[in-house]
Amino acid sequence: MSLQIKFWGVRGSLPSAPPPIDWTYHIEGVLRNFFSSGYRDPSQISKYIQGIEVPLLGGYGAATTCVEINSPKSQLIVDGGSGIRNLSERIMTGTTGRAKGPFHIFMTHFHWDHVIGLPFFTPHFIPGCEVHYYAVQPELESLIRGIFKQPYFPVPFEALKAKIVFHVLEPRKPYKIDDLTITPYKLDHPDPCWGLKVESGGKAYAHCVDTEGTRVTREELGEDLPLYQDIDLMYFDAQYTLPELAEKANWGHSAAQVGLDIAIREGIKKVIFAHHDPGARIEQVLELKRQTREYYESRSRAHKNDILWDFAHEGLEITI
């Protein structure tokens, strides 16, 4: 058995893409590299492109946080950032076999970048569909209802055709959704934000966005430590460099080095970093990646731990 995870939105704070002039320079660089890589004939273009990592060619994406987790029997969506619109379109093609649901959406918190896509999740408007919302926040229902309300959105909640069900979860208490077990743990964020441990068939995914990572030792993490233990894949907030993290204390976002320290200590097998700053261009995320690699190499030599890690791009799919 396995878990399949797809990242539909990996941007933080605000949907954001490079402006046209930036793409112009980027495409020029890609074209120049075609020739410097030894290619000459147009028939070689496909081979050249297939050898380039997706972010180096198409960037990291513009959509905000939305993660899809599939087990053999169920599907869970974490957060409704702008990335959920593309997921919705995929669902409505019928290729997933789940056009009528039920759909399960866990909300970590309710900042704009995590809810902006919810009104564009088409199953809300289809008779016979079921949409289940989960959160630790007791205001879950009122907060979701408030999104479907003028002047923010023209269709009121009462006009939705689907059956909408709300589930307020207890902190740190496991909850079953078919063959999935989900357990919310508190993250380090100015407004209450809850990460999620998702388990099925002996595999475990830890969703740790948005978090500043101010608690790092086992003692500091206390009852939230299990979020980072026995994990196959951790999704961790890495919006800032280490110097930026110091400058932006209490903003609720972290740096890759913080996540690596936790992963090395707890033996996490793979880490994917995300919540890219809305102002971060391709080159800036690549620089974060370079700094992370430098840090990882110095730490792994000391601890002899082999951890796979990378920075997420929109559309990335991982099976654990």
Automatic annotation (TrEMBL):
Domain Metallo-beta-lactamase: 63-275
InterPro entries membership: Metallo-B-lactamas, RibonucZ/Hydroxyglut_hydro
Domain of life where this protein originates: Bacteria
CDD domains membership: TaR3-like_MBL-fold
Residues spanning the membrane: none
Xref: PANTHER family: HYDROLASE C777.06C-RELATED-RELATED (PTHR42663), SLL1036 PROTEIN (PTHR42663:SF4)
Protein name: MBL fold metallo-hydrolase
Organism of this sequence: Bdellovibrio reynosensis
